[in-house]
Amino acid sequence: MSVMLFMDRVYMGVVIQFVKLSGRKPEKRYKWEEIKDDVELGNSNYPMVLVQIPMYNEKEVYQLSIGAACSLSWPSNRIIIQVLDDSTNPDIKNLMEIECRMWASKGVNIKYEIRSNRNGYKAGALKEGLKHDYVETCDVVAIFDADFQPDPDFLCRSIPYSVHNPDVGLVQARWKFVNANECLMTRIQEMSLNYHFRVEQEVGSSTYAFFGFNGTAGVWRIAAIKEAGGWKDRTTVEDMDLAVRAGLVGWKFVYIGAVEVKSELPSTSKAFRYQQHRWSCGPANLFRKMVIEIIKNETVNLWKKIYLIYSFFLVRKIVTHIGTFFFYCVVIPMCVFFPEVKVPLWGLFYMPSVITILNAIETQRSIHLVIFWVLYENVMSMHRTKGTLIGLFEAGGRVNEWVNNNSAPAMKSAKKSRFSMFRERLHLLELGMGTYILVCACYDVIFGKYWYFIYLFGQTIAFFVMGFGYIGTLIPPS
């Protein structure tokens, strides 16, 4: 597994360097021309755009997201803003409706849509939003989650790819993290996500292989959504599900890293763990459901099939989590009890060092935090491995669990006793793993001969810091 992960990282490193040196920007690989008013047709040559904003109890950010969408630079008669509100709090629903009415009074074509249930969660809301009669006039749909704020020129820079390239079904922009400096946990998240956007997405796009839709900050051709079968809620990664199905029917995707959309990273430990469970369980479950369909597909070429199954799913969504956890948190600590077992230096140090450098180099401002990043990622690999196994084998009741960051238990602010607050901060899995690694480290100090304890004590501290809840921000009780 380590070799598979190492080869994948080296491959992507080579490709991304070639892309940077050769200047293979999206506008050079695809036709791109600025859309302008026509002398005779006026602005009717602009495609009709639907902007969807799925909401769920978004009290803190709803004004920012709605305001950013309503401020997009696009002819006012060629855009419809659609607020899809699944909120369960009547006060928040009332605030959002008032906000939409305020923008409507300014001449913005904005629709406030609610449902009687939350079936399908986000996928259900997006699917229901496309059923309204006025959507029939729209050509493309731009999707922004509630905590995303696009710049006014977002549509002008992204939609021309769809207009001038009829085979392009998706245009994906990059995320920009406005709260990356909030705490150490958000800095570490930034390192991982910068690699995802600057390398993984760029490599998939530039090689015409495949890259997944990130669920937000993207523009879909509505015809591509319909041909792919529409939104489905069979997994917790409805965005990836749609992208895989659209790719299998022949649609091309464009990643435009130069276009950034402001967003926020989860800053509480519990909210981040819920997110990571969804991001690890969903892809594994989708792989289980679609691997045979990918193999049997006759539309895409063999290269795309191999890339999808091996690189995109197997290595990045399954092996990277399972391999990281079992090797660094189980196997290496256990080796101290068996002195006759020596882990090869290339597997223990050289390959992990190269993988770490390739991941961290894209966030040079945080390069000094690379040790913390490694230890923290190893801790999170435990949760990701659990989610991956649940998704692969559809074990337990959490395979389709969807917890919004704003609805995670850690985000509730009801009055609690000091004991209950302390209990909520305790995470037994992390404390258990930390204790196991601490025992291994102490044994290695006394009886070992390979100096594993240097790494083991550091990993122990990381597990205990997470286990006692001393990472991320805390939501004070009201």
TrEMBL record:
Presence of the UniProt keyword Transferase in the record: yes
GO cellular component: Golgi membrane
Membrane topology note: Multi-pass membrane protein
Keywords carried by this UniProt record: Cell wall biogenesis/degradation, Glycosyltransferase, Golgi apparatus, Membrane, Transferase, Transmembrane, Transmembrane helix
Catalytic activity line of the entry: GDP-mannose + (glucomannan)n = GDP + (glucomannan)n+1
Enzyme class of the recorded protein, top EC level: transferase
Family matches, as Pfam families: Glyco_trans_2_3 (PF13632)
PANTHER family registered for this protein in UniProt: GLUCOMANNAN 4-BETA-MANNOSYLTRANSFERASE 9
The protein's name in its UniProt record: glucomannan 4-beta-mannosyltransferase
Organism from which the protein derives: Papaver atlanticum
